[in-house]
Amino acid sequence: MTAIINREVCTACGICGKVCPRHIPVVTGEGERKATVFSAERAELCLDCGHCAAVCPADAIKIPAFGDISLSPIGQVEIDEDRLLTLLRQRRSVRRYLDRPVPRQSIDRMIDAARCSPTGTGEMTTGVIVIDDTRVLESLSEHIYKMYEDLEKALANPVARFFIKRQGGEKSLRVLQDFVMPGMHWYIRWYREGKSNEILRDCPALMLFHSPVFEPSGEENCLLAAFHAVMMAQTMDMGTCLNGLIPPVFKRVPEARELIKLPEDREVHASITLGYPKYPFKRIVPRDLAQVRYLASAPEM
Ligand SMILES: Cc1cc2nc3c(=O)[nH]c(=O)nc-3n(C[C@H](O)[C@H](O)[C@H](O)COP(=O)(O)O)c2cc1C
């Protein structure tokens, strides 16, 4: 549903239309008769992103989807680029956790951060499931290891390998064979010997990010929401690790879906293990992108 304009205060400055991704508000008329109206042709395209209401100098716009709340003003934030960069540099994946529960209040703050992550379509369709019950985490571990054990057996069989490739494509077969399974071989062994759990890593809590099966950018949305949560955890001295080995279990194992009560029309795309770091990092190691370059001028054709 589109926004509602308070004509008493609207000055028809047109800024709302300029920031709207679909240019739905438009200014009509001249002089005294100038007014902001919503394009009838594009009203249906409104994403309820709220940019028009957030930018309006006269606070003249209400978004019905937000309910009857007054929007908080934008304030000065006590963070500069050096502090943000330090926070980003200091974040590392934490894979060993203290045997100490994570307060739900802290998880709620992480969820607050996830709420304001960007989304591909402008609509927030991402959902979060938090598991902080050890017994549920143990049951989930069983499903995950069983799935990878079955996969290891299947990959040893040329016929099964052919079908895995046909279903997931060459890239996913290669990722499994060259990256995932060589390490997984040991993870399974250590888990079955009762030595360690290198997938869930005995984390006190796990967050799963899911989105509708037909969401155009479900995977990206879930990863961005997860990363917002990761950075919030960093401010609270908690450790996190994004985990790509966990989401596939909810695609392949119905019992795992049942365990987390995942509706049929949703998929888990991202997961993070979290807790207090057992071995806090003491130093920052250098890290870089593979390549950085500016294209200063168009190359000659
Ligand atoms: C999409 C994604 C999936 C990941 N999956 C795993 C995983 O399954 N297990 C794990 O230990 N780390 C996982 N990681 C963490 C990476 O290994 C880690 O980010 C990388 O090695 C860089 O280290 P840092 O996070 O400490 O900077 C994942 C990271 C990303 C972005």
Question: Would you write up a description of this structure?
Answer:
It is a single chain. The protein has 301 residues and is of the alpha+beta class. Strand 2 (25-28) and strand 3 (35-38) form a beta hairpin. The longest helix is centred in the middle third of the chain and has 35 residues, at 158-192. It is elongated, with a radius of gyration of 24 Å. The strands form 3 sheets. The protein has a 4-stranded antiparallel sheet. A two-stranded antiparallel sheet has the order 1-4. The chain has a two-stranded antiparallel ribbon with strand order 2-3. It is built from 9 helices and 8 strands. Helix content is 39%, strand content 13%. It has 2 domains: 4-66, Alpha-Beta Plaits; 86-275, NADH Oxidase (3-Layer(aba) Sandwich), CATH 3.40.109.10. Helix 4 (104-115) crosses helix 7 (218-235) and helix 5 packs antiparallel against helix 6 (158-192). Bound molecules: flavin mononucleotide. Flavin mononucleotide binds next to strand 7.
